[in-house]
Amino acid sequence: MDFKNLMDKQIQLIDRSLDQVLPKEKDYQDIIFESMRYSVFAGGKRLRPILMLAACEFVGGHEKDVLPFCCAIEMIHTYSLIHDDLPAMDNDDFRRGKPTNHKVYGEGIAVLAGDGLLNYAYEIMLKSLLQDAGDPKRKIQAMEEIARAAGIYGMIGGQVVDLASENKQIDGDALDYIHNHKTAALIVAAIRAGAIIGGADDQALNRLTEYGKCIGLGFQITDDLLDILGDEKKLGKKVGSDIENHKSTYPSIHGIDQSIAKVQELFHKSLAALQGYDNKSAFFVNLADYLVKREY
């Protein structure tokens, strides 16, 4: 099976799982269920759950053990996008070619939909933990990885520094902090959580972590480049919003050519991290290639 077909198959698996676990019943608060599902199923690469699933299988783990955590991390990612699009944050009208959540449901419901997805993600992980007849330690460890990466020492921390840096000239170190925490942290956590649930040894976990750090930062630098050079129709959102919001980005600090070179450097470092696992690493190699070759 070629890489594109494999990715499509994994996306379908994640989407089916999300559809099963997300509430859809009719009740007094059914507007929140509708709003949550609207953003979860608005399209997307499902990068984080796919990485989690791949990392689990890479170390010999089983799909059934990790799927609830795959759903949870996609919900956490989606919550962050709903909040990121709000007028108080990036003030975006479109996401993946569709009106953003607050444009459809209003700001109040959008805030609550994000809150709902974040909270429900932990409900799903805890339910999986309580239903596990085996040793729960791996799943507790995985939850800790995800919680930290999503919180004040990870994604939220990066978002805080990103907001505080608007209309300011920041240096490369501060920008690396933002990218490594706001974007890369949850990507790394997805990989680490999947590997931990799958029973990774220290060497495999360290190698996969290094891979995740490289593609996480490379993914965000590519997003910075796409915001300048990308095609709005292909991206499904407005380009130029970083400039409009006076945000520092890799291209604004380092220039376009150096930013492209940095992505290539990170790509090669990600491959080097998995040397010695040649019979298992094909998916990760192809994924890294796919991420850095998104069209500018």
UniProtKB/TrEMBL annotation:
Care to name a GO molecular-function term for this sequence? Answer: metal ion binding
Pfam families reported for this sequence? polyprenyl_synt (PF00348)
* Protein name according to UniProt: Farnesyl diphosphate synthase
One Gene Ontology BP term is: terpenoid biosynthetic process
Q: What is its EC number?
A: 2.5.1.10
Provide the alphabetized UniProt keywords. Isoprene biosynthesis, Magnesium, Metal-binding, Transferase
Q: Which CDD domains match?
A: Trans_IPPS_HT
Gene3D superfamilies, per this entry? Farnesyl Diphosphate Synthase
Q: For this protein, what reaction is catalysed?
A: isopentenyl diphosphate + (2E)-geranyl diphosphate = (2E,6E)-farnesyl diphosphate + diphosphate
Organism classification, top ranks? Bacteria, Bacillati, Bacillota, Clostridia, Peptostreptococcales
The residues the entry assigns to the signal sequence are none
Cofactor(s) needed, names only, are: Mg(2+)
The GO cellular component terms are: cytoplasm
